[in-house]
Amino acid sequence: MASRIENGDLLNEYLGNKSQRYPLQGDLISEASSLDDFIMDKEPIQQRLYIINRSGSGEAQFVLLNQKRTSIESYGVRYETWKVTKGISNFGVAVVENVLYVIGGYDVKTCKHLHRVVKYDPYDFTWTECSPLLKARAKFGLAVLNGKIHICGGERSDGQAACSCEVYDPGTDTWTDGGVLPAPRKNHSCVLTGSSIYCAGGDYGLRSHDNFWIYEDGKWAELDQDYPHSLPRCVDRYAMCTVGHKIYFIGGVSCRVNAAADDGRFITERGIFSYTLAVSTVRRHKAQGNSLQSEVLSPWTVRYPSMVRPRHGCAAQAIGRKIYVFGGCHLETGQDVRVCECFNTDRGTWEDEFHFRKGDLTNVVTAILEVPRRHDEQKINYKLKWVLW
Q1: How many domains is the chain built from?
Q2: Is 5 a domain residue?
Q3: Residue 295 confidence (pLDDT)
Q4: Above 60 in pLDDT, residue 140?
Q5: Is pLDDT of 3 > 60?
Q6: 14 falls within a domain
């Protein structure tokens, strides 16, 4: 019997060579596009790219990466339900030493912001409570620096934007004060580049902002105190990631102000722009007549082709030299975006990669975890037990 299971013969007889959905181990649901994809027996260790819902559905979908995490190996999307995120929205997600942390958020049933922090160890297949946040919050920025989780700003229990920050040390399971942002923000994003954390945009006072801040030497400040940098446009609820020496900003919501009517309207963006870290002090010299003039190069690049689909609340994940954009929502229609678009940073082009068949994608975040294959074998054996019965 063992050999038939390993070769997939018995499972193949039951499936009838058809792609179907099956409940596996209680609240977990997976979809497989082929038998080989279902069993996932190519490697003993899987590199999973999770696309995690933050709207309260509790859904977590994943695709497989190659072992070096430089490309997507399988586009067969699998679906799981996480009880710890069901009914919770706008929480933060971080991965430290292959342990996933779910931080804070908003309980849509009780209408309360949360202090709660839980962690998931894929090798133990268990969720564990951690020390709670010092202050309950949601819609905050997050980055991991030197093995510690830094969160900044967010929405407080009274619904207002915060400027306070906290730092979590997984080794001691403790939260400490992390200073303050230059101004209150929520619905902003953070990214780690080198030994610095960058924070940009967000909303405060019912409008989007174009701030660009940096965390260095234990405090937050303007990127350049003498010549502060600003984003090319005010934006919040966007995706942010790095490739090489560039920070990319994708999608989001911006506020277009009509000066004549003295009002503004919110627009879902489909554009992308980038900031080059190594250009801010570079000067380009050009000949002008008989003299040589100096011109400061701008670190901002805005002349990229746009995505086909505008989206906010999306997630961007750099894999190799490409940026994959997952999910998100169109503000004007309220519809989620089900097509994953990929931006090739070398060619400067967009391509449609694959389509999500199910699940809520209106507000998502990504995380990469290394998961041993034995858990999938347990799920298959669990299903086969009922097949044989």
Answers
A1: 1
A2: no
A3: 54
A4: yes
A5: no
A6: no
pLDDT in tens, 271-303: 999 999 876 444 554 545 555 454 557 899 999
Distance in angstroms (rounded) separating the CA atoms of residues 340 and 301: 23
- If one compares 265 and 274, the residue with the highest pLDDT of the two is 274
For residue 75, give the H/E element and its range: strand 72-89
Tokens of 79: 């679906």
Q: Domain of residue 202: give its range.
A: 42-372
Tell me, yes or no, whether 223 lies in a domain: yes
Pairing type for strands 246-250 and 117-121 reads unpaired
- C-alpha pair distances (Å), 358 with each of 29, 83, 315, 367: 11, 18, 17, 19
4 pLDDT more than 90: no
82-104 pLDDT per residue, tens? 999 999 999 999 999 999 999 99
Confidence of residue 354 (pLDDT cuts 50, 70, 90): very high
pTM score, whole prediction: 0.83
Edge-to-edge order in the sheet of strand 174-185: 141-145, 148-155, 161-169, 174-185
Report whether pLDDT(7) > 60.
Answer: no
Give the position of tokens 């999973």: 48
* Per-residue pLDDT band at 10 (split at 50, 70, 90): very low
Cβ within 8 Å of residue 248, ≥6 positions away: 240, 241, 242, 272, 273, 274, 316, 323, 343, 345
Q: What is the CATH number of the domain that holds 151?
A: 2.120.10.80
Task: Give the whole-angstrom CA distance, residue 64 versus residue 277.
Answer: 31
Could you tell me which of 326, 352, 186 has the C-alpha nearest to residue 253?
186
Read off the tokens for 366. 């990504």
Domain annotation covers residue 46 = yes
Beta bridge partner(s), residue 91: none
289 vs 330: CA distance, rounded Å: 51
The count of other CB atoms within 10 Å of the CB of residue 339 is 17
Q: What angle do CA 216, 221, 222 make, to 5 degrees?
A: 120
